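Write out the bound-state structure for magnesium ion.
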Amino acid sequence: MRKIAVLGSTGSIGRQTLDECERHPDLFQVTALTANSSAELLFEQIRKFRPEIACLTGGMPESIPEDLAFCRFYPADQLENVAADCDADDLMVAVVGVAGLRATLAGRRAGKRILLANKETLVAGGHLVMDACRDVDGQPTLIPVDSEHSAIWQCLQAAGPNRPKKILLTASGGPFRTWSKEAIENADCAQALRHPTWNMGSKITVDSASMFNKALEIIEAKWLFNVEPEQIKVLVHPQSIVHSMIAFEDGAVLAQLGVPDMRVPILYAMTYPERVWSGVPAPDFAALSSLTFEAPDPERFPALRLAYQALSMGGAACAVLNAANEVAAQAFLSDRIRMGQVYRVVAGTLDRIGAPEADSLEAILEADRLARITANEFLKQVET
Ligand code: NDP
Ligand code: MG
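---
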């Protein structure tokens, strides 16, 4: 029986994590849960899973239901303390945004194994996180949950001592894959939220439409797998069956496949190195008409270029890119800007701020803060 704490339990990844805990009550005991503002859902989850600790990070409600007295509520803004204090073997970091960075580091310092869905944490503070998450006694202390990175991680296990020459990061292409540049520029939030293959939280769905999700994943892959940016290639694969691949020196390629359902990579992180039933059957290959691949179009999806640019700038440039994208995605979700302006806000912020120092958590969070101020200035300029 492993004890698990779920940060961001009311979100898409958080709820699917709890579904797997419910499917395997003999394997997992939930010891802490957090949400930002979804109080009613958090209360329901607490009733069902009976964690010792909980937190509503965005602010406490006026009262806590009496039947939840067994659970200790931490005050708002204490995600980091929940991560450190909870009695857990594994910490599922499923909050959205850079808010996960401090908590991830605090949880690791307190000896927890990190199951990392939250990509913004690695994008902003990759070197700090990887330093904190070195293997202990040959065992990993960080397991990726993002489907592409879980796929690459699984391929690397099969690779044994061989290092990959290239990482082939697949992308669905999102809802605008076949749209013209002009139509993408003018797309609004309702159009972006219609993702063809994955059902996810709203921020990552917007990121998938702008392709900033793949830009973040390029940076995520660089840190997780210690490869050079030139070794990472994005490949558009609309069916989302091949979750990613690695290519070797001799021309051989390993891929990990499955239907697009996050419960598989979530559960694999939770049960590693074993595999148990996730509720998701393997793909029915005979029923799949075809698997297709195409190169991403840098003209229609310029976000990808920014990931390589930020990586080559070094310092806290990736934290700047991430923060500007969080601001722009939020503005897009509130219908303040169109899709084309998301890119302009991020590119403008990265150009203006450049690559501040990144040698400590404080320095990274300061770069994040400055980038948000600048991104908000750009937002005012481009707002429709
Ligand atoms: P959701 O928006 O569905 O859920 C986010 C969770 O974090 C909710 O529990 C939310 O609480 C909480 N939260 C929101 N803001 C804050 C904050 N400032 N501080 C602390 N907690 C907060 O997101 P997803 O589950 O889709 O994504 C979570 C992370 O996993 C993201 O980084 C995403 O990129 C990554 N990911 C997601 C995938 C998916 O399929 N969904 C796939 C791969 C990666 P509340 O409900 O109260 O708002
Ligand atoms: Mg992904």
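---
The chain is about 45% helix and 15% strand.
The longest strand covers residues 28-35.
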